[in-house]
Amino acid sequence: MNQGDDVTRSLPHAVGPEKSLLSSMLQDSQEWIPAALEENLSAAHFYLPAHAVIFETLVEIHDAGREAELVSLVQHFLDRGKLDRIGGPAALTELYTYAPSPGSFRHHLQLVKDKFLLREIIRTGTEAIAAAYDAPAEAAATLDATEAAIMAIRDATEATTPGTVKEAVDGVLDEMQRLFRGDVESLGLATGFSHLDAMAGGLEPGEVLVIAARPSMGKTALMLNIVENLCLDQGLPVLVFSCEMTRRELVKRMIHTRARMSLADVRNGHKPDNGELQRIQRSALDLERAPLYIDETGAIDITALRAKARRHHRRMGLRLIAIDYLQLVKCGSKQAVNSREREVAEISAGIKALAKELRIPIILLSQLNRAPESRTDKTHPGRPRLSDLRESGATEQDADKVALLYRSAYYAETDAAREAEAGQAEIIIAKNRNGETGCVPMTWIAAFTQFKDGAPIRPPSTPAAPKSRFD
Predict the structure, then answer these.
(1) How far is CA 385 from the centre of its chain?
(2) CA-to-CA dists, residue 76 to 26, 88, 210, 382, angstroms
(3) Which of 186, 280, 351, 447 could link 262 by a cystine bridge, Cβ 3.0 to 4.6 Å?
(4) How far is CA 302 from each of CA 194, 299, 306, 365, 400, rounded to the nearest angstrom?
(5) φ, ψ for residue 462, nearest 5 deg
(6) For residues 365-390, b (16+ Cβ closer than 10 Å) or e, as one string?
(7) Three-state secondary structure along 243-309?
(8) Residues 207, 350, 385, CA angle at the centre, nearest 5°?
(9) Antiparallel, parallel or unpaired: β 438-445 and 450-453
(10) What order of strands is seen across the sheet that includes strand 401-406?
(11) How far is residue 311's CA from residue 313's CA, in Å, rounded to a whole number?
């Protein structure tokens, strides 16, 4: 800093426009107080504390249905011991006679909000600097907190206009009509599985859908099937965090699934014919054009995951985030260092907070513990339960919906039973915060690592699809 610079610079402010706003509200409270509130103006936006107190009082009087008349306003402050805080009767008189042009109200309001925005940026930056000095070992957490604080400033400056009851009624009736027509997308993004959407209500903004299962049940396959429907069939931007598989592995699997070609057969030397080659080329081209983004960072920290998600959402307007999977996400906070349960709880809470912040659904894959392996139920051996969620009950608590994936053939004890049950799958909706729970029958096509709606129907003589080694 040069010697001539002022080291005690005042914070950005606009006292004149503040007076103009308050003067307009004093002279016509019924017109200008509602106008200010519609633009999210609050006491915090005023630089001078006296102006903030006056604004709060004007809103209070307006809410009570009274006029903000000068004499009664002075008495109001006097009765509450606040008259000296605002500068006495002379300060109110000065505001009342300020006489701004009514046409300048919104311009002055924007000036006041802009100065507040600059002050908040300075405050956030100052706090970030202090945190960086005070906790140098918490660099990632500091960055995440700073980024979230900056985003909160932006959200706080956006005006919201109250909607009428008529608008709400029209919206509800429209949703009901769409449901009556069988259009379940009115409740959220369609997964592409009609039975699942009918029971779970689609993927709603701000919710977390946990898909949990034992290894090799098809969690990643189900996630990719949903992603394929949203990205390739509906053209919606999706971000996938793949902590286990590489970007190339996921793309390979999606191409073979869409082309309906067995990846296992290709690896075993099968030579595709012209038709199969054309399907592969079309699938690859479809995938190349799709708004799909894959982050393949292994053991990603939750703070880094949230930061990347925010940046992608700002740039691409994401409609869904998928995370594969919970147990491979890390948390470096001090509280989580010595407790894996605490670590999972912080990760789960962070993912739920991210879904609410971005107002988009998140699919979170999770492993189950080994409890299903020890169940001796002869009818449904190995059938999972909600209590099987691994390592932390916080996952169950934070999730809006929990879908347990189950394939009975995996637990069959004989070849005959395995063949008879091959292709049978269930999605058990074990938790649904806003709807019903129950079982959704599915078909598992192992050769294509693909799920389909409904239970499989095939003649007894038809051989079962081979079990995939790549799920």
Answers:
(1) 26
(2) 14, 12, 55, 71
(3) 447
(4) 32, 9, 6, 15, 19
(5) -75, 125
(6) bbbbeeebeeeeeeeeebbbebebbb
(7) CCCCHHHHHHHHHHHHHCCCHHHHHCCCCCCHHHHHHHHHHHHHHHHCCEEEECCCCCEHHHHHHHH
(8) 60
(9) antiparallel
(10) 292-295, 238-242, 320-324, 362-367, 208-213, 401-406, 424-432, 438-445, 450-453
(11) 5
- Tell me the two tokens of residue 254: 């999606």
DSSP string, 141-200: HHHHHHHHHHHHHHHHHS---PPPHHHHHHHHHHHHHHHHTT-GGGGSB--S-HHHHHHH
Residue 113, classed as helix, strand or coil, is: helix
Residue carrying structure tokens 């509200």 = 25
**CB < 8 Å & 24+ apart, contacts of 119-122:** 119/11, 119/12, 119/13, 119/47, 120/153, 120/156, 121/150, 121/153, 122/11, 122/12
Place of tokens 């099968």: 270
Closest residue by Cα to residue 61 from 46, 73, 53: 73
Question: Token digits for 417?
Answer: 């039973």
- Of 433, 373, 367, 448, residue with least CA distance to 405: 367
Domains identified in the chain and CATH numbers? 15-157 (1.10.860.10), 188-453 (3.40.50.300)
| Amino acid making up residue 430 | A
Rounded to whole angstroms, the Cα distance separating 445 from 67 reads 71
Provide the β-strand partners of residue 224: none
Give yes or no for a contact between 357 and 154, defined as CB atoms under 8 angstroms apart. no
Q: Are residues 392 and 238 in contact, defined by beta-carbon separation less than 8 angstroms?
A: no
| Cα–Cα nearest to 447, from 424, 423, 467 | 467
For the stretch 112-141, pLDDT in tens is 988 998 998 898 888 888 888 887 777 777
Per-residue pLDDT of the chain (471 residues; tens, 9 = 90+): 444 444 467 899 999 999 999 998 888 887 888 788 777 788 889 999 999 999 988 888 876 667 777 888 888 888 888 888 888 888 888 888 887 777 888 899 889 988 998 998 898 888 888 888 887 777 777 887 787 777 777 665 554 444 456 665 766 677 667 666 665 444 578 888 888 888 888 888 899 999 988 888 889 999 999 999 998 888 899 999 988 888 888 888 888 888 877 766 666 666 777 877 888 888 888 888 889 898 888 878 887 788 788 888 988 899 999 998 788 888 866 666 677 778 888 888 889 989 988 999 999 998 888 777 777 666 677 788 888 876 667 788 888 999 998 888 777 767 776 777 777 888 989 888 887 888 888 888 888 888 888 766 554 444 444 444 334
CB 135 within 8 A of CB 142: yes
